[in-house]
Amino acid sequence: MLQPEWSPVDLHLHTTASDGVLSPSELVALAVERGLVAIALTDHDSTGGIGEAIDAARGSGLEVIPSVEINTDVPAGEAHILGYYLDHADPFLQATLAHRRADRVARGYAIVEKLRGLGIDINWDRVQEIAGAEEGGAVGRPHVARALEEAGYVASVQEAFEKFIGRDGPAYVPYRKFAPEEAVALIRRAGGVPVLAHPTSLPDWEVRLPSLIEAGLLGLECYYGTYTPEVVQPLVDQAAAAGLVATGGSDFHGGEPTAWSTTVGGTPVPLEVLDELKAAAARAKQPSDAAPSP
Ligand code: AMP
Ligand code: ZN
Ligand code: FE
Ligand code: FE
Description:
Blueprint: E1 9-13, H1 24-33, E2 38-41, H2 50-57, E3 63-74, E4 77-84, H3 91-117, H4 124-131, H5 141-150, H6 157-165, H7 180-189, E5 193-196, H8 205-215, E6 219-224, H9 229-242, E7 245-249, H10 272-284
Parallel strand pairs: 1-2, 2-3, 5-6, 6-7
Antiparallel strand pairs: 3-4, 4-5
Helix pairs in contact: 1-2, 4-5, 5-6, 7-8
The structure holds adenosine monophosphate, zinc ion and fe (iii) ion (FE) (2 copies).
Adenosine monophosphate (AMP) binds at residues 19, 44, 71, 140-142, 157-158, 161, 166, 253.
């Protein structure tokens, strides 16, 4: 049964398939223990954890929604596009995600090289090991940050971002170009519901919104991490005005909550969101409503 302190749904969670700390089975166990009704594994550029999570949840009553989070860079910042109820076996989706993960490996290596230029020597093999790259784990800056912490260059992951690898940091390297509109179209092509993640992270998200909707966007993440009700309500209103589903989740990565993320079920998301998301998924899968191919 759902314990009163937890949200019934959490649509934004990371595992070891990307930069989360818990394995898909460990994450499912925690969600079951807290009595959640549905969770979405939204690993960065990877659906690699979904099979294990679905297996782990079998018989528990917990729904595992096949999902992903695709990171893209735009001039004003980062745009992350979430995709729900997608066909995660879709070959075109998998080929594109594999390409993105290969780009992540190259980018991770470039960051390590840039750090070396600054006199900071961390081992690239160790970064890949932390990321579980050999098992298909998506490499990310958090893995570089953990290697920096391990080597004693910083006291925390947060400090690594602040000093070196944050967007304005001296060892920052952007992603290879991939427009958020392309990510939206990719998710639609795989039968999924594309949602703009944590909109306030992108300073000009309202300017960008019409072009994302044009590309096939169907939702806006309104209940996110540590967003306060003062932030949530205007977003919910904007989603309604634009005909978008208001989704939400904790952005839990394992470990302690951060300045922006909470824990599994730690961000209140109304149960009705699940029905609205399912309805949007049914619409997204109708061929007549399909978005153009990327
Ligand atoms: P990447 O996908 O390699 O660009 O890394 C992005 C991830 O790094 C995000 O999903 C967060 O989990 C994490 N991250 C971003 N900014 C920070 C920060 N300031 N401190 C700690 N982690 C961060
Ligand atoms: Zn992450
Ligand atoms: Fe994100
Ligand atoms: Fe995330």
